[in-house]
Amino acid sequence: MGLTIRPLALGIIWRGDALLVFEGRDDVKDETYYRPLGGGVEFGESSKEALRREFGEELGAEIEVGDRLGVLENVFSWQGRAGHEIAFVFDARFADESFYRRDEMPILDDPATARWVDVRDFRDGSKILYPSGLIELLSPEQGPGSR
Q1: Mean pLDDT of successive 10-residue stretches along the chain, which has 147 residues
Q2: Where are the beta strands (DSSP E) in the chain?
Q3: Of the candidates 114, 98, 132, 5, the residue with the CA atom closest to the CA atom of residue 55
Q4: Which residues contact 21 (CB under 8 A, 6 or more apart)?
Q5: CA angle, corner 29, sides to 28 and 32, nearest 5?
Q6: pTM value?
Q7: What is the pLDDT of residue 76?
Q8: CA dihedral 93, 59, 106, 102 (to 10 degrees)
Q9: CA-based angle 115:87:146, to the nearest 5?
Q10: Do the beta carbons of residue 36 and residue 23 sit within 8 Å?
Q11: Which of 8, 59, 86, 139 has its CA 20 to 30 A from that of 50?
Q12: Given its phi and psi angles, is residue 27 left (phi above 0), alpha (psi -120 to 50 degrees) or beta?
């Protein structure tokens, strides 16, 4: 397969001061990182439709997609391979409030777990949040006390 640019839709879901993210690992960089849930936009599908589909596939959850917070271009390497993504980032909420009471949620189509991580850990640099530039999209009024 040739090198391509991958369009993504990512959902920003808050629980108080915490963002819903999954933990990933890049063994080549010896780096643990976090990323909001979401995934690839398929041909003929809007980024909002893709986000709803991805949350259904990943968590079995229905979400309400809100405003687009921004679009990020991410050129990176993962496990030693080059990657290039265009990420549409949306504010989102779970339709079922019970998801907010879960501290961890298994991702159904991947051997990973979604969890809530305090946004301050990303702001102070103690934990890495991808894609690059995402923390700058999150306005200071989001997070603590906004939900």
Answers
A1: 86 96 90 95 97 96 97 86 92 97 91 93 94 86 45
A2: 6-12, 14-15, 18-26, 31-40, 63-78, 81-94, 104-107, 112-118, 128-129
A3: 114
A4: 34, 35, 36, 37, 114, 115, 116, 117, 129
A5: 110
A6: 0.89
A7: 83
A8: 40
A9: 50
A10: no
A11: 139
A12: alpha
Tokens of 144: 């603590």
d(CA 143, CA 69): 14
Peptide bond connecting 131 to the previous residue in cis, omega within 30 degrees of 0:
yes
Question: What count of other Cβ atoms lies within 10 Å of the Cβ of residue 85?
Answer: 18
On the CB side of 109, CA atoms within 13 Å amount to 12
How far apart, in whole angstroms, are the C-alpha atoms of residue 147 and residue 140? Answer: 13
Please count the helices (runs of H) and the strands (runs of E) in the chain. 3, 9
DSSP string, 89-110: EEEEEESSGGGGG-SEEEETTT
Q: Which two tokens stand for residue 10?
A: 């990512």
Owner of token pair 């989001």: 142
104 beta partners = 115
Token readout for 115 is: 């969890």
Q: H or E segment at 51?
A: helix 47-59
Write down the pLDDT at residue 35.
95
